[in-house]
Fold this sequence. Notes:
Rossmann fold
Amino acid sequence: MEIVCLDLEGVLVPEIWIAFAEASGIPELKKTTRDEPDYNKLMNYRLAILKEHNLGLKEIQDTIAKIDPMPGAKEFLDELRSLTQVIIISDTFTQFAKPLMKKLGYPTIFCNTLEVADNGEITGFRMRIENSKYTTVKALQSIGYETIASGDSYNDLGMIKASKAGFLFKSTDKIKADNPDLPAFETYDELLNAIKANL
């Protein structure tokens, strides 16, 4: 039995931190997992910038409320979920993902949690498990699923390479060049057809 594992940001919805960087006028916050492979380092960098500018969860959630899924994402997800089980595996946080899941029709998502003080300051973050995308795919395989995975960033490569079939989607030229063995797609139709061929 197959299960499809998808990244969230950059695949189904725009990058939250890029949207917030634009809304807040802080270009340093545009750095994502496409730029920095070490997620802990990236998050600590982000939290330091938020503290410096006295920005908290509410400001980020206000930006997220205005983010819509990428054109065609919900239709792609709906069709995919009519064919097989789908789990979104993301390094984002429950406090960010909730409103986006509503817009996507409440798919299943595995993600992380922010630590937030009473005044709304984001004081830290709790990762669900180390190397969560790869670890989750291996756990699904251990209970009898064959996984098919797709994502766009460095932190997706583990789950993509560990799966029966794996695809890059709307990735960077550098990641594509560094991983020439991975099929890379730019449209939902291409990705859907590639997944269907492996179901």
